[in-house]
Amino acid sequence: MTEDTQRPTGDGTAPDDVTQYKIGSLIIDTARQRLGMVMGHLGGRLQLRAPSGGVEWDCGAEFARTPRSGEVETATVPGRRP
What we know:
mainly beta, 5-stranded antiparallel beta sheet, 1 helix, 5 strands
């Protein structure tokens, strides 16, 4: 792998280690500034869905992080983003 694919995520884990996020856990997708629930792992990417439901989307591990204090509440209020 190149150095670019080895850059760490915000919490210091390698980008291809998506299995650290358990199915059902809440994640912030920093690329989209959206809160998502982990629905699965596929090819080094997370499959996320909004806690309120809807269409799943893929999130690269380098853009995933655990929500900070207060972000879950802010993200679940309609019209607000983390």
